[in-house]
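User: Can you fold this complex?
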Amino acid sequence: MPLKYAYHPGNIAHSSAPEVSQTMPTVARTLDIKLTPLEGATSCGAGIIRQANEMLQITLNARTFAMAESMGLEIVTPCAATAGNLHEDLNKLRGDSILLAKVNDVLERNTGMTFNAETEVHHLLHVIVDEIGLDKLESKIKNPISYRIAGYYGPNMQQEGACGNDDVFDPCYMEDLLRSLGATPVYWESRTKSVGVPGLFSEEPTVLKQTASVISDAKSEGADLIVSACTLSHTVLDVYQAKASRVTGLSANIPVIHLTELLSFALGHYNNRLAQLKTRLAVIGD
Amino acid sequence: MSDGLPLLILFGSQSGNAEELAASAAKQGSALGLSSTVKGMDEIQIADLEGTQRVLIFCSTWGEGEMPDNAEDLWQAANEENPPSLEGCNFAVCSLGDSSYEFFCESGKDWDGWFEKQGANRLIPRLDCDVDYDKPAAEFTSEALANFAAVGADGSFDPALITQAKDPSPGEVEISDKPSDSSQTSEEVELSGGGLEELLTSGDRSLAILFGSQSGNSEELAAKLAKRAKDYGLEGIVHDMDGFDFNSLSNMKRVLIICSTWGEGEMPDNAEELWQFANSDSASKLDGVHFSICALGDSSYEFFCQSGKDWDSRFETLGATRVVDRLDCDVDYDSPAAEWALEALPALSAVDSTGLFHEGMVESIKRFASGSSTGADGDDVFSIPEISSAPIQVEVSVFRYDPISASSGSDVWLCVLPARMSVLEVLRTLKSTQDGTLTFRDGTPDDPNTAITVNGKIVLPGLTKIDSVAPIREDSVSIRIEPLSGFEVIRDLAIEPWSLERKRESSRPWMVASTREGAKIPQGVIGTMSPSKADLLHPLCSYSSHTALHSSSDATPYSNDYLGPAVITSMWARRNDPRTSPKKLDHIDELLRSRNGIKAETDLASIHRQSISGPSISRALLDAKNAVLNMDRFNGRHGKHVWWYTWSIKSSGRVNDTVIYRQALGPGGLLGNLFSGVTARMVFGFTRTGGNMLNGMLGMVAPPAGIGKMPKQFNSSVDKHHEVVSIFNELDGRF
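Assistant: Here's the predicted assembly.
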C-alpha cells in the first residue's frame, strides 16, 4: 500500500527552486508515496507574515490544514522552513481552544471549512526514515552517491515535536539517510544553525556572516557538497555563497543541492543532472 | 533490616571523607551478606563495643596527630580506667591522613593499637592512606569486608570462608583519555565517582505545595518546586489555597507553603478563606506534618512578608514541625528561593512515609540529587534504597582555549559515567582528576552564570543530566561542551559577560515610572496591575539566565552591535509595564526601532527552539518586531520585505520572490547583487545541477527575472484564491 500524503511544495518550489518541483515527484513515485497536491494551499508564511499579523498567518495555515483534513490526509513537505512553520501554527491551534474557535469562525465565514486539528505535518526526511525505512530506500538505490556530504537541517524543523523521533539538537536522520545512499555523512556542528533567511534583505551583512560560517564549517569537516533539507535556506547557501565568502574572507564555495535532488539522482532519475554534478565536483571542485 | 551478619562501621571524620568511605563500605558489604550499621564515633559509647564481633573503622587524623572532633570524646572514654574487654571482637582499621604532616595517620594508629590492646583480633593489617586515598581505601575495604564475612556467628574467623567482594560498585566512574592519535592506546583511569542512586519511593512520597498568590509569582514558584521535587524522590502536588481543605493537611507528612503578601500585610485573595479557617476552632492539629515556608514580599512595605510569617507561626502553633527556616523573599526572589529549595526539598525528602524526619540523611539526599551521591545507607529505620544508575559510555568533547598562546581546539575523553550525572559534575570530575587547568564557571545547579552549550543546546549544566542532553545511541552518548556563543571566551568554557552588560547598560534598563492612579484600600492607596498584564510580564522577567538568552540567537555572534534577545526582552517587558513613564516609553521605542534593535534579529526560530528561553520569549520578540514594523509603517528594508511578502500572498496565495527582491532591495540592491556575483549565480545556476537555464519564457520578456534561479515575474494563483483574499480582507485590510 502506498503511503498517501497531501503535498505542500514549500514556499519557492514554484519559483526560485523549480528543481524541487521537478525532483520531488520522482522520489515519491519510486518510494511508493502517493502525493495529492494541495492546490489551494498558500505559502506557510515562512515566519514572515506573522511579523505583520500573526492571526493572518495562522488562519491561512489553518485553511491549508482544513484542506488536508478534508482529504483525510496528513501533510508532507520537502522544505524544513515550511515543516517548522506549519508545525508551529498547528501546535498553537491545538494548544489554544479559544484561538482555534476564533480561527474556525473566520475560516467558516470565508471558506465554508473548519479545522479539527486532526492532520499532521511531516518533512520528507522524517517520512522516509520513520515511515518508509532506510532499508527500503537502500534497496531502491541505482546510483550510489559516493561523496562526503554535509546534511543541513536548519533550525525551523529542529524544534521539539517537529522532527519525528530525531533529536532536536543532535539529529542523525539526514546522516543515516546519506549513509543509505552510499555517501559518507559529515558530522558538523552548524547543521541546525540558522543562516538567517528571514533577515536576508534587511540584515545582509549578518546573514552573510552566518552563511559563511555554516558553509565554512561543512568545508572544514571535509564535505564535498551540502545537501539542504530546507528549500529557503538553500537559496542563501547557494546563491549568496560567493558574496558571503568575499565579505567574510572565509572559504564558502561549495555545491549545495536540495535533498529531493540528491534522492532523485540516487534513485536513478535525472542521470544527466547527476553527471553534471559529478563533473562539477571532479573538475571545478570549490 | 536484613538478617545478615552484623557489622559495625565506625567513622571518625572531620571533612566527611571517612564518613563517605564508611557509607560506601556499608553498601558494598550487603553484597557479602553483611548487615552494616554505620555510626559516627560520637554516636556510640565505648561500652557499646563490648560483645561486638565485627568492627570496621575509618578514621582521619586532624591537626598534629589529633582525633577528628567527632572521635575525641570516644577516644577519651576509651582511655579511661576499665576499658571494655574486646575478646572475640574482629576489627580492621583504615586510617586517613596526609603524609606531609609529622603525625601521619596517627588517629588510626591509635585506634588500631587500642583495639589490639583490648584483646580484639586484627583481621587485616591497618591501611594508612595518604591524600589520594580512593583506590587503596577501596581495595582495603573489599579485603576487609571479605574477611568480616568469614567471621562466623560465634565470632570465630574462618579464612576458608573468604569470598571476593563485588567490585567495582555500580556507580563507579571510569575515565580514560581518548587517544588523539589512533596509534595510541587509551589508558583507563579509575576514579572514585561513587554510585549514583535514585530514591526509590516507598510508601507515601507526596509533597503538598500550597500557594497563595495574587500576581502569579507564588503559583509559578510552586509549579517549579513541584517539578524539582522529583529530583528528591518526591511527588510534588501543587494546591491552590483557594478551595483547599485545610483539615486534609493533618494526613500529610510534607508541606511547602509559598505565599505572597498583599497590601498592608494581608493574605492574597486566594489564601484569605483558608487563613480564616486555619485560625478557627475547626482547624485540625498538624502533628506529624513537616513543613517549610517561602514568603514573597516587598521590603519597601511595612509588613514585609507578613502572610508567610503568619502561616509559619500558625503551623507551628498547630503542632507541625518546621524542617527548614522560613525564607522571606524580596522582589528579586528567584535566586534566594532557589537556594531555599536546595535546603527545603532534601529536608522534606528525609521525612519517611511514617512521618519520621531523618535529619542525618539530608546531606546524602543533597548529594544524591546533585548527581554526586555515593548513596549512603541510612540508619536502622530509613535508608535510601539502592538503585544503580546504569553506567553509560560517554565521549566528552570539551572546547579548550588558551588565551596565552591564543590557540583553541577540543579535548576528548572517553568515560564510563552514571547516566544521571549532571554535566557540571562531569566537568568537575574532569577538572579534579584529568586536567586541573580546565576552566569553567562553577556554582549552584541553577546558577545562571554557569550556562554553557552542550551539543548546540544551551543549558545550566548543574540541572542537566548527561542522559537527557543527547540521545543515547548504542549505549553510548557523545557530548560536545562549548562556551556560550556570542561572547568572547576568556579561557576554555568561561566567557566574558561584559559585552552583554555594556549593551544592557546602553539600553538604560532602569525603571522610570510615571505618576498613576492607584486603588484605594483600607490601608491606603496602592498601585495595581491587571492580572492579564501581570501574566504577560512575568514570563518575560523570569527566564533563567541573561547570558544564555543572549546566546540563544544565532545572529548575535555575527552582529556586534545587535542588542540581542536578552536586552530586547527586558526592554519589551518594560515597555509593556503600565508603570513606565511616557518619556521612557519613547526612549524604549527609539531603541527597539534602531538598527541594533529587534530588526537586527535575523531568525526567531533559533531562539524558539532553545528551551532555556522558551516560546514565551520568542513570542515576546515577535510581538516587539510586529510593534516596531507597525510604528515604522513597514518602511525600511525589513518592513518592505515583510510587507511585500505578505502582499504577494494576498495577490496569488504564493510568494513572488521577484516582487520581494525588487521592492525590498530596490535598484541599488539589485545592482549590488549584479556586481557581487549573486545575480551571476542566479543566472548561470552553478549548482542547479542541470536544471533549466530559463525559468519559462517570461525571462525573455523581463530579464533578469525568469532566468536561472531568478523567479517568475508573476505567479499563477492557488485554487480558490478568492478565499485567501477574503481572509485577508477580514483580518487585515492594509494589504
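Residues 653 and 719 of chain B are 9 Å apart (CA to CA). Chain B touches chain A through 83 residues (CB under 8 Å).
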